[in-house]
Amino acid sequence: MRAVLAAASLSVLGACRTVGAPGVPVTIESLDGMPAHKRAAVIEAVKREATLHEIEMSAGGKTPRYFLRGYLSVRNDDGGSQLGFVWDIFDGEQRRARRITADVDAAATSPETWDGIGDEQIRQVSAKAMNEVAAFLAEAE
Predict the structure, then answer these.
(1) For residue 9, is pLDDT > 50?
(2) What CA dihedral angle connects 49, 104, 84 and 98, to 10 degrees?
(3) Which CATH number fits domain 2-140: 2.60.98, 3.30.1450, 3.40.50, 3.30.160?
(4) Scanning 58, 81, 101, 125, which has the fewest C-beta atoms within 10 Å of its C-beta?
């Protein structure tokens, strides 16, 4: 019985684990789609999540192995708003290696699309996206 409970606990803990990708340098070539007043929050969330996922941002003359190009969009429909990210990961020869998408729901709709998007939605979609980037980088190693 204890063995079954221990295995179940490990399974639950494993499902919540964050994917990490240390030692694979990347750089963000572009990040578009958000209005100027949301740009700082988006960049901060992406950097924080990249750090949490052990994604090594290329700095100090280190040549990146992969280049990221990101785009955000907000969609409104009758049921609310959604914030979406698309990340294209390119290799050193500028061939797209993977496309990653992530979406999160926003609590409110607004005629001004981005007005319904808060820091929490930006954090959530950044976490989802960076988890997928880290998983790709871990596979690529």
Answers:
(1) no
(2) 60
(3) 3.30.160
(4) 101
